[in-house]
What does this fold into?
Amino acid sequence: MKQYSLFIGGAHVDTTAHADVRNPSTGEVVGWMPLATLSDLDRAVAAAAASFKVWSQTSDEERQAACRAIAERITVHSEELARLLTLEQGKPLGGLGSRFEIGGAIAWTRHTAELSLPVEVLQDNDDGRVEMHRKPIGVVGAITPWNWPVMIACWHIIPAIRTGNTVVIKPSPMTPLSTIRLVEIINEVLPPGVVNVVTGENSIGAALSAHSGIAKMTFTGSTETGKKIMASAVATLKRLTLELGGNDAGIVLADADPAQIAEGLFWGAFINNGQTCAALKRLYVHDSIYEAVCKALADYAVKIPVGDGLDETSALGPVQNEMQFNKVRELVDDARAKGGRVLTGGAPMDRPGFFYPVTLVADVTDGIRLVDEEQFGPALPIIRYSDIDEVIARANANPAGLGGSVWSSDPQKARHYARQLECGSVWINKHGAIQPNAPFGGVKQSGIGVEFGAEGLKEFTTIQTVLS
Ligand code: NAD
It folds into this structure.
């Protein structure tokens, strides 16, 4: 068991206070998180500001080489990071778990290394020349959630430093250790102060997002916290990228083949135990194949092994924390009380840890909490519909707008309806499949801005127009 330190200005910084970080599979302590004070935060912002003066002046090639080298260092440490992640987050090592997440962090880092934002010449004629340059913004504050902590940390850190910014990252207090270790590894490559980490309770996140030395906040987490961060950005007019909660609808058309789509539907909904922003969270199925889809999903679900993340045979682990575990339990109990038919699961597993089984609830509709709210856990409501236009209106009635999907044996028809969904990403016959070259972000209350690809990179820059 280890007592961790903050990492500021290229060096470990010890704190006097620490908090336990526990394994959600067992409740055992896996390490101690340092509790940063406000003066530690000031020190981190000052270190990042000092290094910005130098890092922002490095060439594009130098920054590209640094990002490539970071991908290599993460690769070298990938198994160590995966184990630490499993211990604090709970997700299995194998399958779509920790090794998959670290693989994603490496893939995104590699892809981002190869992106660049060259100067654009908008005009060059007898009337003059107009060039558009992209400049780094300054010190970026990054705040991350507990569901995919290492991959999301890379989504924040790598485009920020690739474009010449410096970073102070604050991970979730539920999963801080893998981010501290990631920042140590990144610092094997970078000059001191380019990437710094502070950890602590939510209040240190609030202090970071209000800090006058922060020029931009990049935040991934709940819509409620995103609104607080937006409010605290006002005083210094911070730039913002907000990747917030979702309540993604999946719509199964009458011509879909239940046996063929069951696996895709299942993992679209239950990847990382449903604790995924763009997971399928409301499943609308046409009346004519409703029972067949319910049966195909339930048959698939019972074959999935749920267990301790360190057990190589587990495909899903526990819910990450008690608050989320209680929320899932409450929403399922409420759905059952309102007439929901539980096809599988439906009550906590009888073992230590926050284990809740894969749960499918049929015969529910909009207006109950399991459908209207983001459950962010292993419980999926399955809703019957008969009119496609009406179901699209119901899908769009939710304030969230992160992702959506349409399932059909006619991809053209599916695409036609998918385009009518009010969300940042839509998938045909799959759900939640993100990739580093495809911009990803929410509309409505699911966020502001996008991540990934050149569009995501631009969010870490300001434009300077040069007219001559
Ligand atoms: P959360 O909002 O509770 O916490 C996220 C982070 O914000 C944590 O680091 C937390 O310490 C910090 N925080 C809490 N209060 C704060 C405050 N007042 N000011 C500044 N920071 C504060 O979210 P969570 O429970 O960790 O994550 C789950 C949520 O994240 C879900 O809603 C999920 O959909 C969303 N999410 C979205 C995406 C996306 O890309 N859109 C990705 C992953 C998760």
